[in-house]
Amino acid sequence: MASETNANAQTIQAAQTTVPAVHVSQLVKRYGDMVALDYFDLDVQQGEIFGLLGPNGSGKTTAINCILALLTYDKGTIRVFGEPMTPTSYALKRRIGIVPQNVAVFNELTVTENIDYFCSLYVPKKADRAPLVEEAIEFAGLQDFRKFRPGKLSGGLLRRLNIACGIAHKPDLIFFDEPTVAVDPQSRNAILEGIQKLNKAGATVIYTSHYMEEVEQICDRILIMDHGRHLALGTADELKAMIDTGERITIETLDLTDETLAAVRALAFVIEASYDGRELDVRCRRGEHNLVDLIGVLRTSGANIGHLTSRPPSLNDVFLELTGKALRD
Question: Where is the ABC transporter domain (predicted)?
């Protein structure tokens, strides 16, 4: 695992000596009086899986649609593989694949016909498409469902078909927008492994998701945005190191009094403490003796202590501190 991580880091470092896959500078997009993108910056290096995160209404979709030249914008610069991106940049658009959040396939067509149709938007000759369609079917694990129509597929298989339609033409840059929404764990794992396989084959990936564990699992770097602005950028570990939030401590106790809970909340390192009658949940600032000091307060009060867990800050903690809300809000 470490050798793979090092190899991927070296690949990204090498890519940084070339032009970025996507370069967005000082992008402004307004809808009347509302500012959707507020001098937004973004650089995605060739060869990386890049996570783009933000709560609903943060500007993610607007930014992506501007990058794809599906929206006009008021100010700023967008370049894809070093070239200006415009509505008529057809050569650039052939190098891009899009897997939208909402499944976009034709119910009247079979699996094979759907993939062939979307591939035909980029590859006009059927003889050239045939091997690409076959490869996409095998990549998505749809060999046994070639003649099925979408209505006969499970949610997970439908998501796989959506991906196959978006990547059949072998794009160099792929946008994945919430590709694992409402799928079973097995299909989710298959989708994530497929994205990593595409990346290892040379594709640059821009990935959005509301599942933090997915982002942490597959993304090389992550950008957090809100209110149309770039808030923070780095690896998952780098982002966690940027915030004041430290560990989260959970302690089973059945006899915590209001006075003891108030004493816990009064501790200097406590950001937030809640008690549901069974578990005390404490979000802490960074500190070396948080757990010892917390247990000391509980013991002094005579509260019984059961199972105890302490975990380091998560990406959701980063999100909460930077944006004031959880990602799913």
Answer: 22-252
The residue written with tokens 């650039």 in the block is 92
Q: Where are the alpha helices (DSSP H) in 148-257?
A: 155-167, 185-200, 212-218, 236-242
Q: What is the pTM of this model?
A: 0.83
Tens of pLDDT along 173-223? Answer: 999 998 988 888 888 898 999 999 999 999 999 999 888 889 999 999 999
What is the strand order of the sheet 270-275 is part of?
270-275, 279-285, 245-252, 308-311
How far are the Cα atoms of 89, 91, 218, 223, 296 from residue 96, in angstroms, in the given order?
11, 9, 20, 20, 57
Exposed, middle or buried: residue 141 (CB in 10 Å: 0-12, 13-18, 19+)? middle
Q: Which domains does the chain have, with CATH numbers?
A: 2-240 (3.40.50.300), 244-312 (3.30.70.980)
User: Which strand (E) or helix (H) includes residue 77?
Assistant: strand 75-80
